[in-house]
Amino acid sequence: MLEQLQITDPLEDIIGLQSHFLSSKSMEDRKTLGQFFTGSIVSEYMASLINKPSSKSVRLLDAGAGTGILTASTALHCLKLGCKTVHAVLYELDSKAIPSLEQTLKIVQNTFGEQRASFTFEIRCDDFVLARPDKDEDTQPFDVCVINPPYFKYSVQESPYAKAASDLYHGDPNIYASFTAIAMSSIKQGGQLVAITPRSFTNGLYFKGFRSYMLAESALDLIHIFKKRDKVFKNEDSAVLQENVICRFVKGSEQSDITVRSSNCDSSISNADEEHYALPLIIDPSNDQKIIRIPESAYEAAILRQAETFPTTFENAGYFISTGRVVEHRTRTYITDDINTDNSVPLYRPHNVSPLQASWTGEHKKDVVFKLNDGHEKHTMENGNFVLLKRFSSKDEKRRLVSGVHLKNAHDCELIGFGNKTNYIGLDDGNLTKVEAYGLSAVFNSSFMDKYFRCISGNTQVNATEIRVIKFPTREQVKEIGRLAQNLKSVETSEIDLIVNPILGVMDAI
Ligand SMILES: C[S@@+](CC[C@H](N)C(=O)[O-])C[C@H]1O[C@@H](n2cnc3c(N)ncnc32)[C@H](O)[C@@H]1O
Fold first, then answer.
1. 509 near 451, Cβ under 8 Å?
2. What residues pair up with 249 in beta bridges, in sequence order?
3. Probe target for ligand 1 pocket from 128, 134, 180, with the most ligand atoms within 8 Å of CB
């Protein structure tokens, strides 16, 4: 029975082994090890991204192999490309997965045997990050590596993973970055690395060191993005859905144009929309952050191109952005919902921020005040005109950027509290006028800016570091927008767009 199936489609049996293994484990267990397994559609697609390696005998690396679906698909793809000798080295920490992994590899071995080809393998039931095959003299570099690394954050103080890859890049953002960087370090010049990971590494300060390392070592020549927060992995818990990307890196290659594909996570994957972009459009050369911007369509690329023509950046225009100073869990004793407390000031939380308007009336059930007790100076700041920009949008919220104006005269107080779930924006030099504040807020609330920002950031967080470097209109344009926006009767995005788009000379974003 098994042999018959192998002749028709070895992957069917391999998927069977995978499902059987997954059903034997609790969700808790799988989460601890980051066991979100790749289904056959994504696995075959990832394998198909590998171009024929030049070596006669191909060395394949799988880091976090699970039950081996990625190695199986990749080895079979290499066989189709005419590679007759493939040797795979697979790391998997979970000893319970090893019997299924072995069975998977034997199925692959049989298929190779039937075609007079040779597939050999070596399973290392070991910790990939701590074992560091790239530093092991007995492990030769690899030609090909296709991975779906585990992802979880770890404690920088206590985890053995902290600094485990610090010789490659600085920062300890997430285990998937360590996996991917060590995989890169383990392949040879000209070697190919295909990885499916969260999109989070493409922007943000935490991953800056990782991005710099990857882009210095290799050319990122293909990005595949899933259009929706689809269920990409087999046993994914819908609560952890996040945007995932597949990237192909070619080590030591000269970085040139980048192909961006987008599809849903179903059989349409191999028929994805495909566009080719010049390098500077995807990796912003104007600063050292190496932010990887991903337009999901030609239309989004047009938005990105238009934004590139803006005369300045947010920071160079003369604005600053900071995260609100009040970290609520560290300042509990200062915060009360008794809004009539003496010697206290309003504390702005995200619910106080809506398009064009930041408003604290004391009437909302979540409104709180910040008591000016000893030590408050570290958390409060001088009241003034500011623009508040929410730091988080909910997963399903249509807009990423929501910003409202806070005017000094809204409250009769010298000091004010801004929570760290909002960013506050002002002028480097001097105070924002009401007009300029409305102009800034309107720019952030426009559809164009929202779409532009989405190309830059895949997560729902709006970080000050990304805002600082975005392309931006001049202060004159901002003020011109503000003069009209301050009189708007409606806060509908379409009304805001009618003011912003003609002044910035940008197309209507849909
Ligand atoms: C996201 S799963 C991917 C499994 C498989 N490659 C696939 O695509 O279906 C990550 C795998 O890495 C394993 N893993 C987690 N931490 C590891 C470590 N430090 N070293 C080696 N393997 C690890 C997990 O047990 C899990 O099987």
1. yes
2. 193, 220
3. 128
Q: Is 94 in the pocket of ligand 1 (CB under 6 A)?
A: yes
Classify each residue of 199-214 as buried b or exposed e, where b means 16 or more C-beta atoms within 10 Å of its C-beta.
Answer: bbbbbbebbbbbbbbb
Q: Is 125 near ligand 1, meaning CB less than 6 Å away?
A: no
Give me the pLDDT at residue 487, please: 94
Under 8 Å between Cβ of 260 and 294: yes
Task: Kindly report the number of other CB atoms within 10 A of residue 131's CB atom.
Answer: 17
Closest Cα to residue 196, out of 43, 72, 417, 61?
Answer: 43
Measured CA to CA, the distance from residue 26 to residue 24 in angstroms comes to 7
DSSP letter for 260, please.
Answer: E
For 148, 488, 491, the CA distances from 437, given in Å and listed in that order, are 45, 14, 15
User: Which sign does the torsion angle of CA 481, 484, 486, 489 carry?
Assistant: negative
Q: How many Å apart are CA 256 and CA 233, to the nearest integer?
A: 31
* Spacing, Cα 275 to ligand 1 middle (Å): 32
Q: Quick one: 27-294 is in which CATH superfamily?
A: Vaccinia Virus protein VP39 (3.40.50.150)
**CA–CA dist 129, 301 (Å, integer):** 37
Judged by DSSP in three states, 185 sits in helix
**Fold adopted by 319-504:** Adenine-n6-DNA-methyltransferase TaqI; Chain A, domain 2 (3.90.220)
Q: Which residue has the higher pLDDT, 2 or 192?
A: 192
The atom of ligand 1 lying closest to the CA of 43 is: 8
Question: Could you report the per-residue pLDDT of 306-326, keeping only the tens digit for each?
Answer: 999 999 999 999 999 999 999
**In testing the pocket of ligand 1, which one of 18, 27, 35, 69 has its CB within 8 Å of the most ligand atoms?**
35
Domain ranges of the chain: 27-294, 319-504
Cβ–ligand 1 distance for 198 under 6 Å, the answer: no
148 lines ligand 1 (CB under 6 A): yes
How many CA atoms lie within 13 Å of 400's alpha carbon, on the beta-carbon side?
Answer: 18
Residues 6+ apart with CB under 8 A from 35: 22, 25, 29, 66, 94, 150, 235
Q: How far is the CA of 19 from the centre of ligand 1 (A)?
A: 15
Asked if pLDDT for residue 395 goes beyond 60, the answer is: no
Tens digit of pLDDT for each residue in 129-158? 999 999 999 999 999 999 999 998 888 889
